[in-house]
Write a structure and sequence with these properties.
Layout (H helix, E strand, L loop, with lengths): L2 H9 L3 E7 L22 E8 L9 E8 L1 H5 L2 H4 L3 E3 L7 E2 H4 L1 E2 L7 E16 L9 E6 L8 E6 H6 L10 E11 L2 E5 L6 E3 L12
Length: 209
């Protein structure tokens, strides 16, 4: 792929360069939102980025990027699965279906942020008195070698994304680092744009990845 090919792929929506995921909730997203409509306010133009996606070693191109969210990836998820993305701090373009990692296959911590998905077993507010500022403990189905795996993010942020006490069986997508936590593994302190529930209509698409 040369620079012109890459630009044409971006223009035809076959390739996206993601410079980063949104850290903070956009101002215009203030107020309650339908969890499946959030992507409309979660994407903006990013910087022109120097991206090493050429065929020849060391070749880099200046290409337009975007700042987006994991929620933005699930919009048209059936099409996005086979679209190419260059994720933050990555040197290669990958199809989304090849980049996604099932938490049930993870057996150790990883300090490099990656794109994961997991099936929720249960989710609960960890405070003695439930408060939005408490951590919500969302347990995900994990590898048999791992005692447990939790997504640990403030309750208010998870609940805004539709994750609550009734979310068992749903699939959550997230971008982050896997760390040791107690006797198991976890991902924690995710930014506002780094996680989202997958719409139920797309869940079957992950079978066999």
């Amino acid at each position: 792929m040369n620079e012109e090919d890459a630009k044409q792929a971006i223009e035809s929506d076959q390739l996206a360069i993601i410079s980063s995921f949104l850290r903070d909730r956009p101002e215009k997203a203030a107020g309650p939102l339908d969890p499946y409509d959030q992507s409309a306010v979660e994407e903006m133009e990013g910087p022109i980025s120097l991206v090493p996606i050429g065929r020849h070693r060391g070749e880099k191109f200046m290409l337009p990027s975007r700042i987006t969210t994991v929620a933005g990836l699930r919009r048209g998820f059936d099409k996005n699965l086979y679209k190419f993305f260059v994720f933050p701090n990555s040197a290669i373009a990958q199809r989304l279906c090849d980049a996604l990692i099932d938490i049930a296959t993870v057996t150790e911590e990883c300090d490099v942020p990656r794109l994961y998905y997991g099936t929720i077993i249960r989710s609960y507010n960890a405070g003695i008195t439930p408060k939005p500022t408490n951590i919500r403990m969302t347990e995900l189905r994990c590898h048999p070698k791992i005692k447990d795996f939790y997504l640990k993010v403030h309750a208010a942020d998870q609940e805004e994304k539709g994750i609550n006490d009734e979310s068992g069986g749903r699939i959550v997508l997230f971008w982050g680092k896997v760390i040791e936590s107690g006797i198991g593994l976890a991902v924690r302190d995710l930014a506002w744009g780094e996680f989202a529930l997958l719409p139920e209509k797309y869940e079957k698409l992950l079978d066999g990845l």
